[in-house]
Amino acid sequence: MVTEFKKGLANDGEVIAMLPSYVINRPTGSEVGVYLALDLGGTNFRVCRVNLEGYGNMRLTSAKYTISDELKTGPGEKLFEFLADCVAAFCKDYGLDPTGDSIPMGFTFSFPCKQIAIDKGMLILIKAIVNDTVGTLIAHAYSDPQTYISVILGTGTNAAYVEKVANIRKWGSGSGEVIINTEWGAYKEASILPITHWDNALDRKTTNPKQQIFEKMISGMYLGEIVRLILIDLIKSGELFNGVGSQLLEEPYHFDTAYMSRIERDHSLGLSDTKQVLEDVMGVVNSSIDDRRIVKHVCELVGTRAARLAAAGVAALVTKINRLDACTVAIDGSLFEHYPHFGNRMRDALRELLGITAQNILLEQARDGSGQGAALIAALV
Ligand code: ADP
Ligand code: MG
């Protein structure tokens, strides 16, 4: 991965894009003021009112709106109309007067976006346009200046980090530092990644085959689907549910990653909650306790692999920037936040990869980090 990171810094068009963010300042913790922040992810749209109080403290009020599939796949204009409606509703609900003094606003996108300047997008009224990974890094650095890396583990996965401009060969020469949005989800080195035939089966049916392979092994959008494909094979071979499947099990993406969390959290003697999930979500009645143990074990394997691969990416970045002595990694996204043991599994893998120095690498939850970061970057520019 370090090799691929370096290639991305040297040339355009490499597998890992390594996009410079144009964010050249990190916060000092003394920035103050009230800001609006918008955070558009793959699943949710968050609107936040961020009050920077200085001394590394901030207060945040936020509301979450779900982006329907219709909006996601429809024309951009409809999507942005919806986003504007959400902001208007938020201002009304939280007593912000949008017709009064103007409120600086940052906008976080979780989609790769080749920027040409900090505020060069199509929305000229916005102070700053920020990638969610970059936002998360900045948000965490406000209270912890050792934050050099951030990771998103949500619908997708990505990472950002602080790089010396002198190392960005595709930029020619320069000094100082800049935050790089790696777009590491694109990593796909088949001789290195432990790709199984279920990964290949999943990949073939996606809209972007042979791309984002790392992401497809790690992130919330895909883990449940990998589990579903494995379960179907186990049914076919007669090892699960006496070889009897269900119609719901045959539906692609019907088994959401959130159900893996529920199953992994089920420590009851009879795995009763797992039974419930199988019945309610998958339409599988009459599962035996052995069946449920197998299902739980599959979830553990797929979930653990994801955490360990994410940790490998973190180890690569920490090594790349030579921060093995002290580095905080800010992590945002529902997968990291809600999936049981995800953080500890990452820590275990870091320890295996980096040895005792792994204790210098702090993995920290950065809830709403990308939204806060958008506000902070608006403050910084
Ligand atoms: P976004 O990617 O839009 O910023 P999130 O960070 O909330 O949004 O991530 C959404 C993803 O997290 C979805 O793919 C969903 O499957 C997954 N997810 C949501 N809740 C859980 C949970 N309890 N356990 C595991 N994954 C979850
Ligand atoms: Mg997000």
TrEMBL record:
Domain of life: Eukaryota
Pathway noted in the entry: Carbohydrate degradation; glycolysis; D-glyceraldehyde 3-phosphate and glycerone phosphate from D-glucose: step 1/4; Carbohydrate metabolism; hexose metabolism
Keyword ATP-binding listed: yes
GO (cellular component) term, any one: mitochondrion
UniProt KW keywords: ATP-binding, Glycolysis, Kinase, Nucleotide-binding, Transferase
Domain Hexokinase N-terminal: 1-124
InterPro entries found in the cross-reference section: ATPase_NBD, Hexokinase, Hexokinase_C, Hexokinase_N
Pfam families with a match to the protein in the record: Hexokinase_1 (PF00349), Hexokinase_2 (PF03727)
One BP term from GO: glucose metabolic process
EC number, as in UniProt: 2.7.1.-
SUPFAM superfamilies, A to Z: Actin-like ATPase domain
UniProt catalytic activity: D-fructose + ATP = D-fructose 6-phosphate + ADP + H(+); a D-hexose + ATP = a D-hexose 6-phosphate + ADP + H(+); D-glucose + ATP = D-glucose 6-phosphate + ADP + H(+)
Signal sequence bounds: none
Keyword Ribosomal protein on entry: no
Family statement: Belongs to the hexokinase family.
PANTHER family associated with the record: HEXOKINASE, HEXOKINASE TYPE 1-RELATED
Protein name: Phosphotransferase
Provenance organism: Boothiomyces macroporosus
Gene that produces this protein: HXK1
